[in-house]
Amino acid sequence: MASSCVHHTRITPLSRSISNSSPFRNPNLRLRRPTRPIPPRILRIRAIDAAQPGDYEALIKDQFERSTKLKIAIVGFGRFGQFLAKTFVKHDHSVLAYNRTSRIDYSDVARKLGVLFFDDPHDLCEQHPDVVIICTAITATESVLKALPVQRLRRSTLFVDVLSVKEFPRKLFLQVLPVEFDLLCTHPMFGPDSAKNGWKGLNFMYEKVRIGEEESRASRCDRFLKIFELEGCNVVEMSCAEHDRHAAESQFMTHTVGRILEKLKLESTPINTKGYESLLSLVDNTSSDSFELYYGLFMYNKNSMEQMERLFMAFESLKKQLFGHLHDVLRKQLFENTEAGESSQEKIMLPKLLHNGSVVESRE
Ligand code: NAP
Fold this sequence. Notes:
arogenate dehydrogenase (NADP+) activity; alpha/beta; PDH_N; disordered C terminus; Arogenate_DH_2; oxidoreductase; NAD+ binding; about 45% helix; 10 strands
């Protein structure tokens, strides 16, 4: 394995570097007396890092790097795109990024992260990345994908998405991208808030939608997945349809409850219970995500509507249960009073009846 990264400097004596066409080599040419003194024989640098026949070190180093390192282009350099980029850079992959707007100075953000930023998608694609990751808002994915100049990419490029819904990008990739491209749908089930202390033990779901049979394609996909494995994620292979069923119950529900609680403007108290603290951290974990993201979870997962309805029904049923209980208590009190009233009446009336209507004073 090539371990050296020292630049090789080759030094060639000047006399040996004179070509055959040089007048110094041609016996038929008469040499004129030099007007200046001939410089002493010196050593001159003729080439730096030029590959020489038999110089396998650079070649092997290059092959080694290509077999382990990836050139990853992130399309959509928002909150989550930047979050992913940090870890890709940490793993020594070369990371490029593109974002539709320059409302924020993304190039500055990128530079700090060690990412090469492009304002123009054509320039990004001309870099021939191994992997292109779509990391845009769910709602914008279709227009972004259709506008990408994919003809400038290599034919075997691996397309990955990290959208929080899965059936939608799967279908879109199959519809829009050329058949030569490899397709991998993934969902890291965490974000900048929930994974601020690392990715260890967090779930990462993927479906290999279309990966070419060649060894190089399979290994490129595995190298990409390996990043999440090395970070300690629980990497789960699952179909996109199954993901959406589970995610509507778990993720969409979490975000919905988090957003409802956020509207209540809950505040920490001096006597927080553990449960209440969990609620506060749920608000923290969900409120920084864009509404665009939440809307995408609702709109682009066909199972979300059903979950929303179940949530309303559950709330209604709980309310009924509470109010029903309250009603029972009130009614009981009401009737008890009435019954108590009736029985005292009885106590008054009974002696009267016993004495054939004649009024007999009660002893009480
Ligand atoms: P987001 O609001 O879902 O997406 C923001 C990104 O989308 C930005 O790059 C934004 O560009 C771009 N975008 C928005 N509207 C666009 C449009 N009309 N045309 C082109 N680009 C547009 O927030 P995010 O948290 O960064 O999420 C990005 C993706 O990652 C989403 O698909 C989300 O489902 C997925 N994801 C997020 C998390 C998370 O925890 N945040 C976790 C897993 C997966 P501008 O900066 O120009 O607005």
